[in-house]
């Protein structure tokens, strides 16, 4: 799996958009960008993933640069409950054989300020 | 919305004892996983399980660990002889075909 680089921590004001960057300059053509988050020692929670097109769901938007070497997770209207560690993971799509354990880095600790 | 559940939420054991951590994956899921997170450290992959056999395991998953799907609903992680360094949060995850992994709330294991 390609290596990712994320800032250690970020602050964002409640109600504003939180933009979390991730660098993955060694990403391969068949690797997806996945985002998970972990709220205070709870189990990691899936947020969104994409290959090359921008993606949006009810939780967030994912913007992937044209060269795919970096991406940004956007939480459009951050709330206090979005305070968590956010993980950017680059890997091939889940394999049919199940050999697809996720490799978590240290992630970005996002703190939403009231 | 269906969820992965894990029991117990907290397990305390003495060093050298056997522990079994239990997970109930989401009902129509076919792939099952265990991860652990030592306090203050990264989430680490332990093992994946599909079609009643291990698909992949990490270096952490040594002979002291085993997994089993004893029936149609449970997925267990057994540690045969616990060590102090096994103290961690243990997360179970599951997924269905062509989908992402969904994690349970975790079991906190404390080895004394």
How many runs of DSSP E, i.e. beta strands of chain B? 11
Mean pLDDT of chain A: 92
How many helices of chain A in DSSP terms? 0
Largest sheet of chain A: 5 strands, mixed
**Any idea what the shape of chain A is?**
globular
Q: Termini distance of chain A?
A: 37 Å
Distance from first to last alpha carbon of chain B: 37 Å
Which band does the percent of strand residues of chain A land in? over 45%
Average of pLDDT of chain B: 94
Describe the protein in words.
The complex is a heterodimer of chains A (114) and B (112). Chain A is an all-beta fold. Helices cover 0% and strands 46% of the residues of chain A. Chain A has strands at residues 9-13, 18-23, 31-38, 45-50, 55-56, 61-64, 70-75, 84-92, 108-113. A 5-stranded mixed β-sheet of chain A has the order 1-9-8-3-4, with no helix packed on it. A 4-stranded antiparallel β-sheet of chain A has the order 2-7-6-5, with no helix packed on it. In chain A, a hairpin with a 4-residue loop joins strand 5 and strand 6 (61-64). The radius of gyration of chain A is 14 Å and the shape is globular. Chain A starts with 8 loop residues before the first strand and ends with a strand. Chain B has 112 residues and is mostly beta strands. Chain B has strands at residues 5-7, 10-13, 19-24, 31-37, 43-50, 53-57, 65-68, 75-79, 88-95, 102-103, 107-111. In chain B, strands 2, 4, 5, 6, 9, 10 and 11 form a 7-stranded mixed β-sheet that branches. Chain B has a 4-stranded antiparallel β-sheet with strand order 1-3-8-7, with no helix packed on it. In chain B, strand 7 and strand 8 (75-79) form a beta hairpin. The model of chain B has no long low-confidence stretch (mean pLDDT 94). The chains are: A mainly beta (114), B mainly beta (112). Chains A and B meet through strand 4 of A and strand 4, strand 5, strand 9 and strand 10 of B.
């Amino acid at each position: 799996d390609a290596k990712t680089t994320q800032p250690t921590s970020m602050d964002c004001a409640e109600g504003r958009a939180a933009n979390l960057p991730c660098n993955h300059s060694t990403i391969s053509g068949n690797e997806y960008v996945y985002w998970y988050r972990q709220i205070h020692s709870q189990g990691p929670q899936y947020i969104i993933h994409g290959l090359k097109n921008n993606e949006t769901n009810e939780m967030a938007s994912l913007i992937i640069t044209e060269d795919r070497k970096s991406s940004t997770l956007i939480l459009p209207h951050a709330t206090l409950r979005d305070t968590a560690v956010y993980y950017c993971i680059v890997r091939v799509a889940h394999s049919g054989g199940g050999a697809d354990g996720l490799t978590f880095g240290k992630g970005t600790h996002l703190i939403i300020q009231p | 919305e269906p969820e992965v559940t894990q029991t117990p939420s907290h397990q305390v054991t003495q060093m050298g004892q056997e522990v079994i951590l239990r997970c109930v994956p989401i009902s129509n899921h076919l792939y099952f996983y265990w991860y652990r997170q030592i306090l203050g450290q990264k989430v680490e992959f332990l093992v994946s399980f599909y079609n009643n056999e291990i698909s992949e395991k990490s270096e952490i998953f040594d002979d002291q660990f085993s997994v089993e799907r004893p029936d149609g609903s449970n997925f267990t992680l057994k540690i045969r002889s616990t060590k102090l360094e096994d103290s961690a949060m243990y997360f179970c995850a599951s997924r269905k075909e062509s989908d992402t992994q969904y994690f349970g709330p975790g079991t906190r294991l404390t080895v004394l």
